[in-house]
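Could you help me review a protein record that somebody else here produced? My question to you is simply how this chain folds and whether the tokens agree. Thanks in advance; the entry in question is below:
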Amino acid sequence: MNILYLCAGAIINRGVERYIMNLVSGMSKDFHIDVVTPLKCQNTQFQELIEKRGGKIFELGLCHIRRNLYVKYKKQLEDTICWNKYDMAEVHTGDIPLLGLSAWICRKNGIRRVILHTHNTHKRNLQYNIDRMIFLPFMKQATDFWTCSVKAGNDSFPERVQYKVKWIPNAIDIEKFKFDLTSRSKIRKKLCIGRKIVIGHIGAFERQKNHKFLIEVFAKICEKSDNYVLFLAGEGALLNEIKKKVKMFKLEEKVIFYGISDNVHEVLNAVDIFVMPSLWEGFGIAAIEAQANGLPCVLSDALPKEAFVTDSCEVLPVRKNHAERWKNAIMASDIQTNREKGYVDICSSPYQLEKMREKVVQSYMAMFSSEQKKAGKI
């Protein structure tokens, strides 16, 4: 079975990439998977996994994916599809224009089964309303609709298809995220953290992740105590802007910019409190990873309810005047909590990788069988 995955942006190390890697790493090679990105693949681990399975990554090489480049995107995606025969395509994004355009392009070029798999929610503004008005009609070309959360599905898809939207949990390899004291000591020593309390955040430096707010909260914490360190893993367009804000607050010695990490599961062991003040979020797989590691979590109420699994989650709004509440919640977090408990709780949740992979594989097989029958091959 030949499957084409379409990603909306550069392939780095966000939740979408981690979902795909978790999924395909244990799938049979009977499922041949190629991946298209309109930009570049900057995640070597992702690329090695796809190529090791015999797949290819097609980089369309656009400088960005904006409206004035949609025609170029259409042309290059059509060329990719025409040179390769695919049984189905799965579009991994929450971007409404690309969901609609990709569905239309794939069906127009002979791919009979097209899954739109949304991974994000949206800010309800004028641009969102315009995008829905223009591009939702294109989505009628899709055959299947998947979502990482109920809210993401409601935000991304037309009302008329909501009855057939399927929830696919953003599952993780739970064993990898189980708390490890040896790893904690090793990483804290490497980072020269000592006995400081580490506040951790994992996410791309984009507006959605709300790093500006987080720095303001951390500045308030540092006014009260000198015993905290802020650990930030990720890269992105706003990285330099956030570094300037850190400098403005004179926090350079207290903030660690770790960059992109292939060992998130190990890094979390060194953290004491996990925070995620996102402005909007399709799911927030990093929050599940942190809960599996047993960390106390202070999370934005913009995350969908599916992301709050353990009782270690404190959920707060992220409006500007709530920085004081975030400061108090973080400083009141129980860092002496039993880190093993989070692992046990996640093990009994829907986020077990094997369960998710089995659900997806069975869906692929049912779709493939259905199309074979329609074509008279069965």
Remarks:
- The chain has 14 helices and 13 strands.
- Residues 113 and 302 are 32 Å apart (CA to CA).
- The mean pLDDT is 93.
- The first helix runs from residue 15 to 24.
